[in-house]
Amino acid sequence: MARPTALSGFPEWLPGEQFVENTFVERVRRVFELHGFAPVETRAVEPLDQLLRKGETSKEVYTLRRLQAAPEGDEKENLGLHFDLTVPFARYVLENAGRLHFPFRRYQIQKVWRGERPQEGRYREFRQADIDIVDRDSLALHYDYEVPVVAAEALAALPIPQVTVHTSNRKLAQGFYQGLEIADPPAVLRVVDKLDKIGPEKVATELRDTLGLSDAQATACLSLAGIATPDPSFAERVRALGVKSDLLDEGLHELTVVMEAANGLVPGLLLADLSIARGLDYYTGTVYEAKMRGFEKAGAVGAGGRYDNLAESGSDRFPGVGISLGITRILGLLFGAGALAASRQVPACVLVAVTSEETRAASDSVAAALRRRGIATEVAPAAAKFGKQIRHADRRGIPFVWFPAQAPDGPHEVKDIRSGDQAAADPATWEPPAIDRVPEIRTP
Amino acid sequence: MARPTALSGFPEWLPGEQFVENTFVERVRRVFELHGFAPVETRAVEPLDQLLRKGETSKEVYTLRRLQAAPEGDEKENLGLHFDLTVPFARYVLENAGRLHFPFRRYQIQKVWRGERPQEGRYREFRQADIDIVDRDSLALHYDYEVPVVAAEALAALPIPQVTVHTSNRKLAQGFYQGLEIADPPAVLRVVDKLDKIGPEKVATELRDTLGLSDAQATACLSLAGIATPDPSFAERVRALGVKSDLLDEGLHELTVVMEAANGLVPGLLLADLSIARGLDYYTGTVYEAKMRGFEKAGAVGAGGRYDNLAESGSDRFPGVGISLGITRILGLLFGAGALAASRQVPACVLVAVTSEETRAASDSVAAALRRRGIATEVAPAAAKFGKQIRHADRRGIPFVWFPAQAPDGPHEVKDIRSGDQAAADPATWEPPAIDRVPEIRTP
User: Fold this and answer.
1) Which range is least confidently modeled, A17-26, A184-193, A363-372, B339-348?
2) Beta strands in B140-243 (DSSP E)
3) Cα distance from A201 to chain B (closest Cα, Å)?
4) What is the pLDDT of residues A267-291, one digit of tens each?
5) Is the C or the N end of chain B the one with fewer CB within 10 Å?
6) Contacts of A438 in chain B (CB under 8 A)
7) Is B360's CB within 8 Å of A39's CB?
8) A135 to B105: CB separation less than 8 angstroms, yes or no
9) Chain B residues in contact with A18 (beta carbon < 8 A)
10) Predicted confidence band of residue A199 (pLDDT cuts 50, 70, 90)
């Protein structure tokens, strides 16, 4: 067959890069668990009606079909791949409500799929790391600042540029539009959400021409979206625009509480940025977009918000708040910029040489002794000349080559192939330098 | 909306079970890395022609389609979800051959999907943990025993019943059938593969009636499949059947080498079991089926073998050998039998009580101090009565509740809610017993 080629939008890493991703996932998981978030994984598929019930996302869904299904049949099995981890989690909460304790804190690190035409570096398969807190009936406001604080601590555990969480509140924007007597606030929100992409002039045009706003309304909407402050002073600037509504007051209050508490815990973490809207329809209050320093133009590396109505069934209601970190997107940006790499392509710290195929068992037993003490070790593939065996280690970045004793009581020797230093060593006690034990992540 | 229900064949765990799965994955990964296997992940999708080129599996594939795709179009994008990790890995090796060093050792832990009608406890989505070693042009035989030895070490790191690796060799069976002058050996292999499911009589009938074997041929095939020995004595028993062919000799030699070396390294690990055939067409030599003690009837919890021709392109050929551990299957069996559970449903070891919402920041700061020293901690959801806050911890299995100082210089106290013991403690130095730090896996 012909040599296969990559599929656009479906990233795959080389082993060194995969090691970096695994390390990221492990560190993020560790921080989430330190904060008491419990692990959940959901199946990759959801019934289509579940995926589509909050609108706006239908274009992005991959649907599934069994290859051998009858051409017409199986309509009851209308399944699609999940496009985020929030919708499946809301379904999981409803399905298991009787077996979970609320407020329920969970993290979820999985791949998601979006059936988009690949363009502008968009992924069709990517890994997200989410935390969410849901409660029954109502959810305390303090979780709205806890979530970005935990996310920030997770990101701070990674060797990446600093991340700022741009934060706004849907009630604030929606209340402001209502105060302006705009008929369809969600439609305005969707247009304003394009500010980053198309700029203020085109947004103004679209607000006037497509949504029928007056010049004054459009100008006020753009003025609101132009407000960004690192502290709660955004509230005065909003009030200076002279618009009034109860929902606006509620939004201003919530965002003020969130800004003060989060920046009290992690100074400089949040930026009140009233241009933030978030495309997904399920958010109802606080919304977040995390941007990485130096990569602001690349869009959000994390996003989320509060959703008071996503998980409801009959009279049961489970409001939630959460944030999703774009692991694949962060890695893609930093690998692309040459800003992240592993110090070697394989986990092995030691290659045990093989003197002859007849004595391979002796090399196996040295390797076993080293592994028992946690030293990752492989045995040479063949009893080639030692020079060739050393090259095998060198090409993979394995720092040490072990030469087993040539006689039952003879000395073993180990060579640091970087310095060329070679010395006698005992498989039961020899230790590599701590820095060589596992591959390091380098940020050149 | 109505309360959602589970989808048959797509297992989802509660958080305590997910914790067990995560721990399994972490331990298996650790052993694989100790043996120098490098991490690889492949995308979930492959072009359909790639998935179907080795036959016999077409019925199991889920195909993908963008919801908004034109009814006819997009045929160039014929994608399906991978049904194992071997076919994608072979594709990955061909695609990246110029950037990998051979022999290449990789592990891969991911979910796979099979579009089967759910039945007999079969999963449609499940996690596998694979190791494979591939080389260029030819692959040394010692890897055929290294692979089950590493797999056994990984399984031995898990709190599960002992696993035995039933091992055979395709050349042995195929050479035997050729020696019997049977026209279509692979067809016989496929029928014999059903021995476990339908029993010897039905296999004999099918061999005679469907494949046209003589009574003597069918009897000889069943005699071969009846041979199982814990040592290399299977070879004499095969020779006693009086069938001769070069390929049979080659198979006997390879299986003898593999049995002797593997059982030398891990006594009792391998059982030569000539009934093992493996359904997938890509195996060409050694084949493995791992069975868990007490769950033999449930089928294999691991499987694999050598594939000399799976990864080829033009004149490039990358023979490989590997084994796949069925993580989801193992967990499903043991959860189902009530043989595995987590000691608590959440990672938190400590719940910090909140005296009043005004002093929540004081509780947050105790939690931060404990987390800095690696103690998983959550803060109470609300400043309820302490009795209610203790019940919050109790329901989740959180062993300790922390009561922050009531005055700036006052004493903090911590209560073990199992014993009721309460004592003064300093957030900067207090340590929980080691056994309480993280949830334990229990095997009741």
Assistant:
1) A184-193
2) 163-169, 228-229
3) 31
4) 999 999 999 877 667 899 999 999 9
5) C
6) 33
7) no
8) no
9) 38-41
10) very high
Convert the pLDDT of each residue in B136-152 to its tens digit. 999 999 999 999 999 99
**Range A166-179 average pLDDT:** 95
pLDDT at A444: 76
* Architecture of the domain whose range is B15-341: 2-Layer Sandwich (3.30)
Chain A residues with CB-CB distance to B67 below 8 A: 48, 58-63, 80, 115
CB contact under 8 A, A106 and B264: no
Element (H, E) at B87: helix B86-96
Q: Is B374 helix (H, G, I), strand (E, B) or coil?
A: coil
Confidence of residue B68 (pLDDT cuts 50, 70, 90): confident
pLDDT at B120: 57
Closest Cα to residue B257, out of A360, A408, A275, A356?
A360
DSSP string, A54-112: T-S-GGGPEEEEETTS-SS--GGG-EEE-SSSHHHHHHHHHHTGGGS-SSEEEEEEEEE
Q: Please give the pLDDT value at position A55.
A: 57
Cα distance between residue B411 and residue B90, in whole Å: 62
Lowest mean pLDDT among A114-118, B230-234, B248-252, B332-336: A114-118
Residue pLDDT, tens place only, B312-326: 888 889 999 999 999
- Per-domain boundaries in chain A: 15-341, 350-442
B261 closest CA partner among A404, A379, A19:
A379
Do B345 and A37 count as a contact with CB atoms less than 8 A apart? no
Q: What is the mean pLDDT of chain A?
A: 92
CA distance A177 to chain B (A): 30
Structure tokens that stand for B4 in this block = 């959602």
Which ipTM was obtained for this model? 0.95
Per 3-state DSSP, chain B is made up of helix, strand and coil in percentages (nearest 5) of 40, 20, 40
Residue of A24, A28, A41, A359 for testing the chain B interface, max B β-carbons within 10 Å: A41
pLDDT score at B244:
96
The whole-angstrom distance between A229's CA and the closest CA on chain B is 23
CA distance A48 to A201: 37
Kindly list the residues from chain A whose CB atom is less than 8 angstroms away from the CB atom of residue B38: 15, 18-19, 345-347
DSSP one-letter string for A188-234: HHHHHTTHHHHHHHHHHHHHHHTT---HHHHHHHHHHHT-EESSTTH
Could you tell me how many CB contacts below 8 A there are between chain A and chain B?
A: 234
For chain A, the maximum distance between any two Cα atoms, rounded to a whole number of angstroms, is 93
Exposed, middle or buried, A218 (CB in 10 Å: 0-12/13-18/19+)? buried
Q: Tell me which residue in B261, B360, B395 faces A101 most closely, judged by beta carbons.
A: B395
Report the range of poorest mean pLDDT among A107-111, A260-264, A430-434.
A260-264
Pairing of strands A163-169, A270-273: parallel
Distances (CA, A) of B392 to A104, B368, B424: 11, 20, 21
Residues of A in contact with B58 (CB under 8 A): 67-68
* Residue carrying structure tokens 């302006």: A180
Identity of the residue numbered A131: I
CB contact (8 A) between residue A66 and residue B62: yes
H/E stretch holding B142: helix B142-156
Strand runs (DSSP E) across B62-206, as ranges? Answer: 62-66, 79-81, 104-113, 125-134, 163-169
CATH architecture of B350-442: 3-Layer(aba) Sandwich (3.40)
